[in-house]
């Protein structure tokens, strides 16, 4: 991520909110805040982080990775050093 108040940092978050709006919030209706909170959690932890590839997260070959894969690679490299 970029530095605090960096335009790169802001662009990634804007992309996240836009994707969540399009893929989750615009497609369903919930009867309570609890249902909505649960749906958001499931979308982030069940799809967005472990499976959805992101162009802002790439490996050394330039392939897009999911946040979970990117973090695992980063942690593995950090522990190996």
Poorly predicted spans: none
Shape: globular
What's the β-strand tally? 2
Count up the helices. 3
Task: Kindly state the percentage of residues in helix.
Answer: 55-70%
The biggest beta sheet reads: 2 strands, antiparallel
Q: Which strand order does the major sheet show? A: 1-2
Overall structural class, as computed from helix and strand content, comes to mainly alpha
SSE run:
HHEEH
Cα Rg: 15 Å
Q: How far is it from the N-terminal to the C-terminal residue, by CA?
A: 21 Å
User: Beta-strand level of the residues, as a percent range?
Assistant: 5-15%
Mean pLDDT: 83
List the helices and strands and how they pair.
Blueprint: H1 7-25, H2 33-48, E1 54-58, E2 64-65, H3 67-80
Antiparallel strand pairs: 1-2
Name its key features.
81 residues, mainly alpha, 2 strands, globular
């Amino acid at each position: 991520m970029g530095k605090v108040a960096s335009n790169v940092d802001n662009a990634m978050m804007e992309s996240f909110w836009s994707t969540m709006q399009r893929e989750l919030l615009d497609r369903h209706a919930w009867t309570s805040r609890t249902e909505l909170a649960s749906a958001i959690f499931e979308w982030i932890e069940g799809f967005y982080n472990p499976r959805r590839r992101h162009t802002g997260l790439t490996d050394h070959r330039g392939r897009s990775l999911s946040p979970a894969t990117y973090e695992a690679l980063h942690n593995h490299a950090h522990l190996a050093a």
